[in-house]
Every structure is written in structure tokens, then in C-alpha cells.
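User: Before I run my own analysis I want an independent prediction to cross-check against. Here's the chain; please return only the C-alpha cells and, at the end, one sentence I can use as a sanity check.
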Amino acid sequence: MTPDEARRVARTFLTSVRLGGDPLAERDARRRALSVADLADRFMREHIEVKRRGRPPVSVGRGSALKGRTVAPKYRGPNGETWASRGAMPRWLSALIKEGHSVEEFLIGVGGKRKPAAAKKKIVKKKDAKGARKPRAERERDQGRSYGCLSG
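Assistant: C-alpha cells:
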């Protein structure tokens, strides 16, 4: 507020006092008057909450037993960032996954150290040397066993 504006406000207060008014009482009355937020809350309490059926709102109940509790971090990033695996995946971890890293590389725990991404070996499953499994009758014939009902 500029000094000129303050002077104008002071003049209006003085004028209202000379005329017999009480500016402080008027200000207190304005402060005590219901605001739009108060009216909305009152409407919700008196009309909407009474008619609501089904599950109670979340704020009424006790909520989750884990809410507000801190959990030890499970993942640590290359720059020291941590994530406890609660909530959405952090941007630093999702960016590293897009680069080709796996989530397991950043686990904190058992060994205490993690392998760098470059040293990680790819595991490729080899196909079975035997190939597809033969039907039972063919296997038994190859092993020398023969049953009357299965032989031809």
C-alpha cells in the first residue's frame, strides 16, 4: 500500500468516526461473517453428507496403518538418490530403465554392492539338445519296452 492510499483509508476511518460510526466493529462484523468456503462446508455437512450412502469418506476412518510411516529405501541410484518402492517410480529410475538398465542393478541389500551395468552378463537360455519330447509310445519303443496295446 502506498502512503497516499494509506492516507485515504485513514481519512475514511476518521470521517466515519466523526459521523458516529465504529469502523473497528464494522471490520469485526465483516470478519465474523460467513465466507464462501464456510457456506460450502456448511452445505456439505447439512445436505450432502446426510444423504450419502455406501462407504464412508476416507478422512472419517483410521486410514491405512502404513500411512505416515517411513520405510527403508530399497533402491539407490548412481547419484545417491533412493527409493523405498512406495508410490510411483521416480524419474531417475525410469530414465535409467529406458537406457537399458534393470531395476535389480539398483537394489540395496544382500551383497551391499551392485554390479555395474557394463559388467552384467546376459544370460541366454540354450535350446534343449533333445529337442521336442517324443510321445510315450515312441520313447518306450526306443528303450526296448513294448506293451501289447501300444505296439503295432
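Sanity check: The helical segments are 3-18, 23-32, 36-51, 91-98, 136-142.
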